[in-house]
Amino acid sequence: MPTITIRKATIDDAPALSKICLLTGDAGASAEHLHDYGELPGLVYAVPYVNLPTTWGFVMVDDTINEVVGYILGSKDTRAYEKYAAEHWWPPLAEKYPPSMAVKPDDERYMKLLQNMHTASAANIAFAAAHLHIDILAQYQKQGWGRKLIKTGIEYLEGEGVEGGGVWLGLDPRNTGAKKFYEKLGFVGIQGADENQMGVKFEDFI
């Protein structure tokens, strides 16, 4: 059995975060076949969280092979994160990856997203200022590590006194297993947001 530890994420973890994001990017399965530019999912959903202000993160490390095999990442202040990213992170990436470069549809989708990044709804922000992303490689799932990562993140956010006393995330609607997992931990739908948004108040985490 592998020996797993959880530690704070650092900028040096960026390549591993990007790889995990790609290997779980198709509703939990590998998205490698969907991209010629495999770095794109990570540049949107993982790598910013070890580069930009207001962010936080923890990684799972398999000590037997000394590799990062999972992560939880997020921002303590989503609106501040969105503002900074809109000014400093997305513009150079949008210039580097114009949609005209894309051959595969998923590359084109991400490249267009870089030009017009989605932002959280008012309902999400009313629920809590903080959001998260979590990914674990398939061979390490269903072993309790997802709950441990989220517990680690929640304990950190509680210590930071984040506005709203909770945290939320967005779901891929195809990943029904993930929704059931979050529900078991106390996550609920967010009133006024679309059905793919879920959140948990820290006091309700199971």
UniProtKB/TrEMBL annotation:
Occurrences of domain N-acetyltransferase (ranges): 4-203
Domain of life according to the entry: Eukaryota
Pfam families referenced in this protein's UniProt entry, alphabetically: Acetyltransf_1
One example GO MF annotation: beta-N-acetylglucosaminidase activity
GO biological process: glycoprotein metabolic process
SUPFAM superfamilies: Acyl-CoA N-acyltransferases (Nat)
Name used for this protein in its record: Acyl-CoA N-acyltransferase
Membrane spanning stretches: none
PANTHER family reported in the protein's UniProt record: O-GLCNACASE, PROTEIN O-GLCNACASE
Organism: Collybia nuda
Gene3D superfamilies with a match to the protein in the record: 3.40.630.30
InterPro entries: Acyl_CoA_acyltransferase, Glycosyl_Hydrolase_84, GNAT_dom
